[in-house]
Amino acid sequence: MTNDEKVDETAVPTGLVLFAPGTSSAKRTRRMLFMVAWLAVSASLIWPLYPMIAGRLDPRLFALPFSLGWIVITLTIMFVALLALFIADERAGKGES
Amino acid sequence: MAPWEITLAICGAYLLLSLVTGILPALRVSSSVTGYVAADRSMHLVVLYFVLGASVFSSFAFLGGPGWAYSRGMAALYILAYGIIGMVPLYFFGPRARRLGERFGFVTQAELLTHRFRSPSLSVLLSVLSVAVFIPYLTLQMKGAGLILETITDGRVPFAVGAGVTYGVVMIYVLTSGVLGVGWTNTLQGLFMLVVAWYLGLTLPARFHGGIGEMFDQLIASGREVMLTVPGLAAEGDVWTWAAFSSAVIVSALGFSMWPHLFMKSYAAASDRTLRLTVVLYPTFQLFLVPILLIGFAGILEFPGVTPADAIVPHVLVNAGLQPVLVGLVCAGTLAASMSSGDSILHAAASIGIRDGVAKVKKLDDKTERLAIRILVVVIGLISFYFAVGTEVSIVALLLGAYGGVAQIFPAMFAAFYWPRATRAGVFAALVVGIAVNTFFLVRPDLSPIPGMHEGVWGLLANVVTLVAVSLATRPDAERGWLYART
C-alpha cells in the first residue's frame, strides 16, 4: 500500500492504492473502520456466521423468525454505519474522495 | 362487470395511457443518449434516490421475491442480504466515476474502463457481456407482465398474449421516443407501490392468520420449520445448501453496483454529496422487501399449490376478497414496475450494444447508429420474449444466473480505481477467463467442485488470479493508473 505524502507518479507500486496520495490520516482511519464494519456485516450474512448467529426460529424479533429478524438488524446496522461515515465525511470538508 | 373485468380494464387503461404518452411527440422525452442517461449530470437527491430505488421496483421484487418466500421460504432472504451490502462500493468509487465522467464526458460504464486501460476492444467485450446479462433481466420483466395478466383474468388472457401485448407497447415507445418519463413518473409510481407493499404486507397476515407472529406460529405448527430457517428450500423442495445461499449473496452483492444501467447513474448525480447520500439512504428501500416477502408467506397455508410460485402475489390479490379497483391499481402498478424497468433495460442494452460494441469495430454515422440501435431493440426484445414464453425458470433464478456475468466486471472496476499496477492485458484476459469459467459452470453445474456453489464464484476466482498474474507480467500505464487512483 502506498500511503506516502509524496509519491513518484512515474513509478507504479505493486500493491493496492486504496487512498489518493495526500489523504488525511483521520480519513484513512474512518474509512478503514467502516470497511471493517462492512466486512463484519457481510460475513454475518453468509456461512459460517449466519447459521451460527441466526440459523433458528427463536427468539422472535418484531414477530418475525430470528433469521429474518437478523436481516432487519444488519440492515439497521449498515444504515447507521453509512450515515455515521457520511456525516463524518461531510464534517471533514469537501473535495476529498 | 365481473371483478376480473374491472381489474383488467384498469390494467388495459394503464397500457393505453403508456402507449399514448409514449408516442405523442409533444410528450416525448429527449432521445439523446447523453440527455437521457446522464440527465445533464444534474440529478438531485429525491430523483436519484427513486431512480436507484426503482432497481428494486421490478418484477423481481414484486413477484419473484414473494414467489421464493412462498415456495422456498427463507431462501428468499438472500435477496435482502445482498442488497444490504451490495450498494456500499458505490459510496467509494461512485464519486470518482462521477468526477471522471464529468471531466472526460463518459456516458456508459464501458467508456470509463476503455479510457483507463486505453482499450477499445475492452469496450466491445463489455458490450457483448452487457447485452448477454440484460437478456435474462428483460426476460424476467416480461414473465412478470405475462403472469399478472394471466392470473388476474384466470387464464382468459394467456401468458404469451399478456407478455406480448405489454412488451409490444414498451417496444413501440422505446422505438419511437427513446424512453418514457424517467424521473417523476418513477417517483410517483415508487411511492404508490411502497405504500401498497406495506399495507398488504401488514394486513394480509392479519386477515388470514390473525397477525404476523400468529402466521409464523401456524406455519411452524404445520411442519414447516425447515422452510422457515435459513437457508430455506431448494427449487426441488429439499434443503438449500449454505454454499448455494452464501455464494448467491456474494456474487449478487459484487454484481449489484456493476449493472451497466445502474452504474451509469453515477454520472447523472449532481454532486458527490448527492451520490453518497443516495447510497446512505438505499437501505430504506431494502426494508420494503420485508413486507413484500410477508405477502408470499401469507399465501402458503391459505392458497397451497399455486404454480408457478411467481404468480402468488396476483393470486393472493385476486382471491383475498379485496376491492377490484384496489386490485386493479396494484396490478397496474406492478405492470408499471415491470415496464419501467423493462424499457430502461431494453434501451440501455441496445445503446450499449451499438455504441460500445458495433461502433468500436465499424465507424457508424449518426443516422446509421440510430437505425442500428432500433434494430437491436427489436432483436433483443424478441429473444427475451422467446425465453419468457419458452422457459420454466423462476424469476429469481433468471436474475441470479445473470449476476454471475455482471459480477465479472467488479474486479476490473476495482482495479481501475485502486490498483494502478493493473494493465490492459491483465483486465482483458481476466474478463475473458472469468466469463468463460462462469459460463462453463453455468452449463455444467454437475462439475462444480463444491455442489450448489454459484458458478460466478468460480468465475471470480479465475478472474482475479488472471488479473493479478497477467498485470504483473505486463507493463503498467503509470499516467492513467495514477489519474484514477488520485481522482
**Ends distance of chain A:** 17 Å
Task: Output the number of helix runs of chain A.
Answer: 3
- Helix % of chain B is over 70%
Catalogue the unreliable spans of chain A. none
Morphology of chain A: elongated
Separation, N- and C-terminal Cα atoms of chain B: 62 Å
Please explain how this structure is put together.
The complex is a heterodimer of chains A (97) and B (487). Helices cover 53% and strands 0% of the residues of chain A. Chain A has 97 residues and is an all-alpha fold. In chain A, α1 (25-43) packs antiparallel against α3. The model of chain A has no long low-confidence stretch (mean pLDDT 89). Chain B has 487 residues and is mostly helical. Chain B has 24 helices and no strands. Chain B is globular, with a radius of gyration of 22 Å. The chains are: A mainly alpha (97), B mainly alpha (487). Chains A and B meet through α1, α2 and α3 of A and α5, α6, α11, α12 and α15 of B.
What is this entry, summarized?
The complex is a heterodimer of chains A (97) and B (487). By secondary structure, chain A is an all-alpha fold.
How does the SSE layout of this entry go?
The complex is a heterodimer of chains A (97) and B (487).
Chain A: H1 25-43, H2 49-54, H3 66-91
Helix pairs in contact in A: 1-3
Chain B: H1 3-23, H2 33-38, H3 45-53, H4 59-72, H5 77-86, H6 89-104, H7 109-117, H8 120-152, H9 159-177, H10 183-209, H11 212-221, H12 242-256, H13 260-263, H14 265-268, H15 272-286, H16 289-302, H17 312-319, H18 324-361, H19 366-390, H20 395-406, H21 409-418, H22 424-443, H23 455-473, H24 478-486
Helix pairs in contact in B: 1-9, 1-18, 3-10, 3-15, 4-8, 4-16, 5-12, 6-15, 7-8, 8-9, 8-17, 8-18, 8-19, 8-20, 8-22, 9-18, 9-19, 10-11, 10-16, 10-18, 11-16, 12-20, 18-19, 20-23, 22-23
